[in-house]
Write a structure and sequence with these properties.
Layout lengths: L17 E12 L2 E12 L3 E5 L6 H8 L7 E6 L2 E2 L5 H7 L1 E4 L11 H5 L6 E2 L2 E2 L1 H14 L16 H13 L5 E5 L7 H16 L3 E5 L3 H7 L2 E6 L2 E8 L5 H8 L22 E8 L3 E8 L4 E5 L6 H9 L6 E6 L2 E2 L5 H6 L2 E4 L3 H4 L7 H6 L7 E2 L2 E2 L1 H14 L16 H14 L4 E5 L7 H16 L3 E5 L3 H7 L2 E6 L2 E7 L5 H10 L4
Parallel strand pairs: 3-10, 3-11, 6-9, 9-10, 15-22, 15-23, 18-21, 21-22
Antiparallel strand pairs: 1-2, 1-4, 4-5, 7-8, 11-12, 13-14, 13-16, 16-17, 19-20, 23-24
Length: 515
């Protein structure tokens, strides 16, 4: 859980012209304007904190800065001169190093090899393994982790160990600007304190740090200035980190351009035994002592930051992860821990976050995707009745208005919204009683969103218990009858959706209390 960091001092912001100036940065992906004119300046020797909700553009911006993405518009100046960061090596040559939330380590290589990757010490064309290991030892000692062995295979390290190796790799170059994306997410209290000491050492030597975190206590402890992004735009920059209030930060982060058209909520009072009953489930470093129920006809939303444990809870309920304690029951019967087949047999269906890689067979027909979980319905011994299978798929396609309505089209040819309908159709055909939805409208256009919202409500009204995860707080609040707010693997709020607003949710996920 988050350490108490309020008494830590921070160095004053360095004086002088900006080391980095980003002006009017625009980045467009198909159907998405991820950055829409972002401005950011960073001074040598400061910790500049970057804030914004999930999807605000923070990750895209740092990928532009690290050379992973090329901006479509805008200017980047380094020490006053315009630069083009066309590839990561161009950023590295300037002294820009990035530690991403999704670590870019090679699991099959050793710690030392990962740290020196791309700039291995050589002599006469041969790698100097001893020098490589010695560099790793010195950097790991500097980070306060001498117990990590340079010859250890990175894939065998815990998440926190991998984070430390990623930091050592960034420090192995001549760094002038260090970008840290949620670096404390997998660190314990002592490790965070050591991380902050490393940051102070860097800034004392003139290195600038861009620090991304949703934890406002960390921003106040280590930050000098703050920039806030919303919907791909800079809404405030240069704010003092210590004195900008939580209420002000939340006010700047909220508000969206996306239209949300939600169907009317159920007026039913949910009483009696829940269809889905989750009792005290825990998984180390993911979530702890999670208990809740979902009644037939009820939509329960899980709100929280990426990494808070939301998706992991859904996957554990579904049996894709094994709970270390507690139990999951459907209609009063315990499911076998870590068994997807047990969950599916009991009537649990999952629409995962990554539908293309985790839910759909893209090169198979729409019909095959719809009937995938229900093949026993159409089996006669070792044979399938293709006519019955196709007819059943066609009925679901028509009921959900999948377009085009041809069951024999390949699933990859459909739009994102229609692909999501195909996944929903699969569980409708299976007659599921509990439906788990992880980011159900990700990559879906505004028109298709409204259709999916109506379908989800219709499913609930038919008696299905729906458990929903979304990074978009308005979506959780608008679709759900009841909302659970998850912070760092714990439930910090459980109540009716109508009794909480977006700013309350952000206050809870960022500091553990509403404002």
């Amino acid at each position: 859980m988050s350490p108490d960091l309020t008494d830590l001092s921070v160095p004053a912001t360095a004086v002088g012209g900006p080391l980095l100036e980003m002006t009017g940065i625009v980045k467009v992906f198909p159907g998405v304007r991820a950055l829409d004119g972002v401005d950011l300046d960073v001074v040598s020797g400061e910790v500049h904190c970057l804030l914004g909700q999930n999807g605000a553009g923070k990750s895209t911006l740092i990928k532009v800065l690290s050379g992973a993405h090329h901006p479509d518009e805008g200017t980047i100046r380094w020490n006053g001169e315009i630069v083009r960061l066309t590839r990561p090596t161009a950023a590295m040559r300037l002294g820009i190093a990035a530690i991403y939330q999704e670590l870019d380590l090679v699991n099959d290589l050793t710690v030392a090899q990962n740290i020196s990757l791309g700039h291995e010490p050589t002599r006469a064309g041969f790698d100097r393994r001893h020098a490589e290991r010695q560099t790793a030892v010195e950097l790991l000692l500097r980070l306060g982790h001498p117990e990590i062995q340079p010859n250890a295979v990175v894939g065998n390290l815990p998440a926190a160990g991998k984070q430390i190796v990623s930091m050592a790799r960034a420090l192995s170059r001549d760094v002038k600007l260090m970008i840290m994306d949620e670096p404390s997410a997998v660190l314990d209290q002592g490790e965070v304190a050591r991380l902050f000491q490393v940051i102070r050492d860097l800034t004392a030597n003139g290195v600038a740090v861009i620090y991304i975190s949703h934890r406002l206590e960390e921003i106040r402890a280590i930050g000098d200035r703050v920039t806030v992004l919303k919907d791909g735009r800079t809404v405030a920059t240069g704010l003092p980190a210590k004195t900008t209030t939580t209420a002000d930060v939340i006010r700047m982060m909220t508000g969206r351009n996306i239209e949300y058209v939600f169907p009317e909520r159920s007026r039913e009072i949910f009483e009696g035994a829940p269809m889905l009953d989750v009792v005290g489930i825990s998984r180390a470093r993911e979530f702890e002592d999670i208990s809740f129920g979902v009644h037939p006809g009820e939509v329960v939303g899980l709100a929280g930051l990426v990494g808070s444990g939301r998706s992991e809870i859904l996957e554990t309920v579904y049996g894709a992860r094994r709970t270390e304690s507690g139990s999951v029951r459907v209609d009063g019967k315990d499911l076998h821990a870590g068994s997807v087949s047990s969950a599916v047999t009991a009537g649990v269906g999952l629409c995962p976050e990554e539908r293309k890689s985790q839910a759909l067979l893209l090169d198979q027909t729409v019909a095959n995707n719809v009937t995938l979980a229900s093949l026993r319905k159409f089996a006669f011994g070792p044979f399938l009745n293709r006519h019955r299978e196709d007819s059943a798929a066609r009925r679901q396609i028509e009921a959900l208005d999948v377009r085009p309505s041809d069951p024999q089209r390949d699933a990859r040819t459909l739009s994102g919204g229609n692909q999501q309908k195909v996944v929903l159709a699969r569980w409708l055909l299976k007659d599921c009683r509990v439906l788990l939805l992880d980011e159900p409208t990700r990559g879906v256009d505004v028109g298709a969103r409204s259709e999916l919202y109506a379908l989800i409500r219709e499913l609930a009204n038919s008696g299905v218990a729906v458990l929903l995860v979304s990074s978009e707080v308005p979506e959780v609040l608008g679709l759900s009858d009841r909302v659970l707010v998850i912070r760092e693997g714990r439930i910090v709020h459980d109540g009716p959706a109508q009794g909480i607003d977006e700013s309350d949710v952000l206050g809870l996920v960022m500091e553990g209390s509403s404002r």
